[in-house]
Amino acid sequence: MAEAYHVVVSPHNYNSTTVGLAATLHVSAAIPKLPDHRVLRELRVAGGGGRGEPLPVDRGYLTVPTGPGLGVELREDVLVRYADREFPARTIPTPRDEGP
């Protein structure tokens, strides 16, 4: 849709997980005339989150994963550290709470 209106699209991946990065890479690969895909996070840190190996970087370029699905294999033993958990309820301050 953007190409039909001569709009440039350049996906960015600031702080996503490896799964999010893999998904964004797949979307980027499907965009015609993509100028670039910006990844602004240390990939060695991002690559380990729930997956065996980080996504390979070759001369500053990431390759779109080619395995089944998004192309990343998840490690459940790592993901369990990020399991959903209950947080204590908290209230949102109102303007009255901030008064003199």
Write a brief structural summary.
This protein has 100 residues and is an alpha+beta fold. It has three helices and four strands. Strand 1 (12-13), helix 1 and strand 2 form a beta-alpha-beta unit.
Would you kindly provide a written description of the structure presented here, covering whatever features stand out?
This protein has 100 residues and is an alpha+beta fold. Helix content is 21%, strand content 8%. The protein has helices spanning 18-29, 43-47, 76-79, and strands spanning 12-13, 38-39, 57-58, 61-62. It has a two-stranded parallel ribbon. A two-stranded antiparallel ribbon has the order 3-4. The relative contact order is 0.16.
Cα distance spanning the termini: 52 Å
Overall shape: flat
Number of E strands = 4
Q: How many strands, which pairing sense, and closed or not: the largest β-sheet?
A: 2 strands, parallel
Task: Estimate the helix proportion, in percent.
Answer: 10-25%
Rg on CA atoms, Å: 19 Å
| Integer average pLDDT | 77
Counting DSSP H or I runs of 4 or more residues, the number of helices is 3
List the strand order in the largest sheet.
Answer: 1-2
